Amino acid sequence: MQNKREIHADRIVIKIGTSTLIHNNSQPNMHVIERLAYVLSSLKKAGKEVVLVSSGAIGVGMGVLGLKERPFKISKQQAVSSVGQTELIQLYNQALHKNDMVAAQMLLTRDITDYPESHTNVMNTFQELLEIPNAIPIINENDSITVSEMDHHTKFGDNDQLSAIVANLINADLLIMLSDIDGFYNGNPKKESTVKYDTVHAINEEIIGAAGGHGSKYGTGGMTTKLKAAKLILKHHQQMILADGKEPDIVLNILAGDNVGTLFSETN
Fold this sequence. Notes:
This protein is of the alpha/beta class and about 270 residues long. Helix content is about 40%, strand content about 15%.
């Protein structure tokens, strides 16, 4: 019998990656979307405050437009993201409606951390949304307008880091990162014999050295970006769990204290 974790979380950020949301044929994984909507709704009805950070706009847009490869040109990526974001939020909304909930879309840029007025506005919006009993905030980067120029850097970089920033902003008790891997390993489990970490207390050179490269053709993430997110979480004395998202009900297992995934925490 596995040891139980003590997880006390009333305000939760859940992040789901593109490779978990999108099939290899570029079509949305409706099973994941439907079950994720059920989990989010169940938590909200149980009195939890939940926020979803969802990747997938470019991946869904590629499917809608019949593209086989992620565009290289930035402006093309932004255009594809605009198409995909509309489709993705519709899919979430349809799934949430079945559970008597609605999606509340928020598209963010780094202005919310760099400019006091923007920060105040987004915090006010978050506070109001969290108090609405049937609304689920769904967050993504505003890919269609973000830029990376030195004089006005508005891009977060990736949604792993965005999810950690959102968790910091709203003072969440826990960030649950749903990915296509069931935890953090001391190597690439798809290529070699490895061991999974149960708990990581600090992002040190050993941990960084075990991380691989980029993720799927649809997304920009990889284990390195997840560690950057974890480092930010630990800096703010919060907790993060990295777990396999192919069955979103795992969120309920995590909150029940089941020892799944990898816990990033300063304490056991």
